[in-house]
């Protein structure tokens, strides 16, 4: 793992941006197809209105929002601190001909004031990346929760997919201001006779 995680993500997105410009391929979907399907199914099952405001935290190449737009959702915003990621996401959006997705370069730990009032926030791996940063990981996690409270409306939903944290750990991280609604099913793996989950997916509601 590089000493500065930020620069390695940026470099990864710059490579993907180049690839997209060369061959029109959106590159890695960091958490794979099934995690996007899981999120969209949950929103549909909850009968979340199609014009509900959705924020994708650490949107990367924006593919999740593209899938949400194709499923009929119309009020979509994606943020990422990497300008290369946002450029890539905008190119993907243009290629798909979708106009109802907004992308912004934003650091979730240092947000601009106009980002607020979202009904749904989605995180696939961004909290993981924040937690891996060796500089003041605990402080960064606390700031993440504060930022989440400032962008998500009371009663709003927060859907998090994590590879690093167990359900119990996530419940502890988000205990202030959030309550768990449900755990979403994720693929199980078996290791040395013990069954575990490589991915945890939870839905919280802001109190």
TrEMBL record:
<dbReference type="GO" id="GO:0016279">
    <property type="term" value="F:protein-lysine N-methyltransferase activity"/>
</dbReference>
<keyword id="KW-0808">Transferase</keyword>
<dbReference type="InterPro" id="IPR026635">
    <property type="entry name" value="Efm4/METTL10"/>
</dbReference>
<dbReference type="GO" id="GO:0005737">
    <property type="term" value="C:cytoplasm"/>
</dbReference>
<keyword id="KW-0489">Methyltransferase</keyword>
<dbReference type="InterPro" id="IPR029063">
    <property type="entry name" value="SAM-dependent_MTases_sf"/>
</dbReference>
<dbReference type="InterPro" id="IPR025714">
    <property type="entry name" value="Methyltranfer_dom"/>
</dbReference>
<keyword id="KW-0539">Nucleus</keyword>
<protein>
    <submittedName>
        <fullName>EFMT2 methyltransferase</fullName>
    </submittedName>
</protein>
<feature type="domain" description="Methyltransferase">
    <location>
        <begin position="52"/>
        <end position="182"/>
    </location>
</feature>
<keyword id="KW-0949">S-adenosyl-L-methionine</keyword>
<keyword id="KW-0963">Cytoplasm</keyword>
<dbReference type="GO" id="GO:0032259">
    <property type="term" value="P:methylation"/>
</dbReference>
<dbReference type="Pfam" id="PF13847">
    <property type="entry name" value="Methyltransf_31"/>
</dbReference>
């Amino acid at each position: 793992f590089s000493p500065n995680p930020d620069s390695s993500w940026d470099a990864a997105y710059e490579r993907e941006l180049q690839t997209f410009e060369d061959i029109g391929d959106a590159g890695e979907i960091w958490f794979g197809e099934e995690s996007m399907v899981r999120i969209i199914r949950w929103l549909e099952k909850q009968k979340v209105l199609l014009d509900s405001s959705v924020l994708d935290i650490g949107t990367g190449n924006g593919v999740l929002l593209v899938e949400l737009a194709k499923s009929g959702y119309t009020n979509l915003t994606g943020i990422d601190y990497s300008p290369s990621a946002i450029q890539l996401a905008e190119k993907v959006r243009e290629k798909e001909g979708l106009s109802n997705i907004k992308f912004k370069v934003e650091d979730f730990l240092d947000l601009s004031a106009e980002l607020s009032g979202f009904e749904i926030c989605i995180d696939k791996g961004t909290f993981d990346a924040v937690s891996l940063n060796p500089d003041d990981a605990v402080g960064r996690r606390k700031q993440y929760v504060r930022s989440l409270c400032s962008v998500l409306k009371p009663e709003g939903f927060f859907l998090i997919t994590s590879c690093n944290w167990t359900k119990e750990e996530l419940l502890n991280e988000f205990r202030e201001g959030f309550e768990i609604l449900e755990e979403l099913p994720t693929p199980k793996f078996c290791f040395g006779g013990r069954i575990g989950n490589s991915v945890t997916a939870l839905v919280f509601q802001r109190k």
